[in-house]
């Protein structure tokens, strides 16, 4: 609960000892307390004497997202892992030395352990849980270490985005991967007060905590960017704190750019990043592969650190907008509940001011939901991923043995244009599948990435009992 004024907050604290109430934790800046009452009557008496309560709510649990299965249910199919190639896939420069220098990324998690791929001199640690840690590394929780490896790892297999960045590890959850919203809020405020640039949160929960939301707002007011995982619970919505307006909600994709079945969906999703089979640091000094939206989150945090260090005169908030503007659009054209504004592309952001860059791409073949309908909508979308407008764009689409050629005209920088085709369900069922081939071209240009000018998709209809 929190109090309206400092005086009322102090009166309450002074009255606790005589009313069988235990203060478990406090955030003085927010005039908020986490408490346990011996009885509801005792708490009610003290609150009546104190007055001034602003808000009160349950202290919700937060946890490390459950690790998703790499064998998703039909009809999704198997996914493609990134291994150690995720930063190349994102368009990062091969030379990473010095990346993130002078920038501090806070990892709010179960703690960051020592690892050969992480520089100890660049890591500071704060423990808000104070549990007795296991001495055997194999019994310790390596989730936070894995997240730090994605941000700042520096080995041939653990290739972080910004090996020269500083890491502030704030332990807000126990070795079992669980914690509470109040402690996470306290961690956010502590990170801000420690002077970090970016906060990466790969934990979440289903409860809406006003204390946690206030902490996120506090960070944003002071120019600190909060990046948080959307969650691994599929269509059940985005977890907190990613759901708050002050956080950048991140979901996952595989190495083929596909949204995995487990990744949280919702209007709050801002960006997608690598989240399947990513090589990173393990708890016992080894290299492991991990998956989930929690994995995608430090890619966005690390990318922000890279961009802020490379262009220190640009406001941090502008980089969030640039990430959204220069994301590779996938799914239906424009922002959607699965991919957000698209897949993070660091290379496009870094070359955004270059002249004469032409990159026309087939963004996606997107099958809209059409349960039981005779005609299934297929959206073929084309995106301009270069730095110059594209005149006279032509789209050729072959559906089965039927070819169509469309003149899409002018496509502006970063713009996505979609065209909807109808697939005949009966024809697909009769043939067993149908193949869609598309190719885009623009007159008078030299495309820097001709490999993304075309796409082939095979559509099968699968019955699920």
Describe this structure in words.
It is a single chain. With 465 residues, the chain is an alpha/beta fold. It has 3 domains: 2-55, no CATH class; 61-350, Rossmann fold (3-Layer(aba) Sandwich), CATH 3.40.50.200; 360-459, Sandwich (Immunoglobulin-like). Helices cover 22% and strands 29% of the residues. It contains 10 helices and 22 strands. The protein has helices at residues 6-15, 40-50, 86-89, 143-152, 181-193, 210-221, 293-310, 316-325, 346-350, 425-431; strands at 2-3, 21-27, 32-37, 53-55, 61-63, 104-109, 123-127, 166-171, 178-180, 198-201, 225-229, 247-253, 269-274, 278-281, 287-290, 360-367, 375-384, 390-399, 402-411, 416-424, 434-442, 454-459. Strands 7-8-6-10-11-12-13 form a 7-stranded parallel β-sheet, sandwiched between helices. α6 (210-221) links the parallel β10 (198-201) and β11 (225-229). α1 (6-15) packs antiparallel against α2 (40-50) and α5 runs parallel beside α6. The model has no long low-confidence stretch (mean pLDDT 90).
């Amino acid at each position: 609960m929190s109090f309206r004024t400092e005086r009322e907050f102090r009166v309450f604290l002074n009255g606790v000892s005589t009313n069988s109430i235990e203060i478990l934790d406090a955030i003085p800046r927010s005039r908020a307390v986490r408490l346990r009452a011996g009885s509801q009557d005792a708490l009610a008496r003290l609150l009546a004497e104190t007055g001034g309560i602003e808000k009160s709510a349950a202290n919700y649990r937060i946890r490390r997202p459950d690790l998703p299965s790499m064998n998703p249910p039909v009809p999704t199919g198997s996914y493609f892992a990134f291994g150690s190639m995720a930063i190349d896939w994102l368009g990062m420069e091969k030379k990473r030395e010095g990346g993130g220098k002078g920038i501090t990324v806070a990892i709010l998690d179960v703690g960051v352990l020592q690892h050969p791929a992480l520089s100890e001199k660049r890591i500071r640690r704060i423990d808000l849980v104070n549990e007795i840690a296991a001495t055997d590394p194999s019994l310790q929780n390596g989730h936070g270490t894995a997240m730090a490896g994605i941000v700042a790892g520096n080995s041939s297999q653990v290739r972080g985005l910004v090996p020269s960045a500083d890491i502030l590890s704030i332990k807000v959850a126990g070795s079992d991967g669980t914690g509470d919203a109040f402690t996470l809020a306290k961690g956010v405020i502590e990170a801000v007060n420690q002077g970090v640039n970016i906060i990466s949160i790969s934990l979440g929960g289903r409860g809406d905590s006003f204390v946690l939301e206030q902490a996120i707002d506090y960070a944003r007011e002071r120019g600190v960017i909060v990046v948080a995982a959307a969650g691994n619970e599929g269509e059940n919505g985005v977890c907190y704190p990613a759901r708050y307006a002050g956080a950048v909600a991140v979901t996952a994709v595989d190495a083929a750019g596909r949204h995995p079945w487990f990744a949280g969906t919702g209007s709050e999703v801002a960006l997608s990043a690598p989240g399947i089979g990513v090589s990173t640091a393990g708890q016992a000094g080894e290299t492991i592969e991990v998956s989930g939206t929690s994995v995608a989150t430090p890619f966005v945090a690390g990318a922000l650190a890279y961009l802020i260090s490379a262009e220190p005169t640009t406001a941090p908030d502008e980089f969030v907008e640039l990430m959204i503007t220069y994301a590779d659009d996938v799914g239906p054209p424009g922002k959607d509940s699965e991919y957000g504004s698209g897949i993070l592309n660091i290379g496009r952001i870094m070359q955004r001011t270059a002249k004469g860059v032409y990159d026309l791409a087939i963004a996606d073949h997107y099958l809209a939901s059409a349960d039981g309908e005779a005609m299934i909508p297929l959206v073929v979308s084309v995106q301009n991923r270069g730095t110059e407008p594209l005149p006279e764009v032509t789209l050729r689409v072959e559906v089965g043995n039927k070819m169509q050629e469309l003149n899409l005209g002018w496509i502006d920088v970063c713009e996505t244009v979609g065209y909807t085709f109808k697939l005949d369900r009966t024809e697909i069922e009769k043939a067993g599948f149908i193949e869609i081939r598309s190719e885009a071209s623009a007159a008078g240009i030299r495309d820097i990435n001709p490999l993304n000018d075309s796409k082939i998709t095979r559509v099968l209809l699968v019955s699920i009992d």
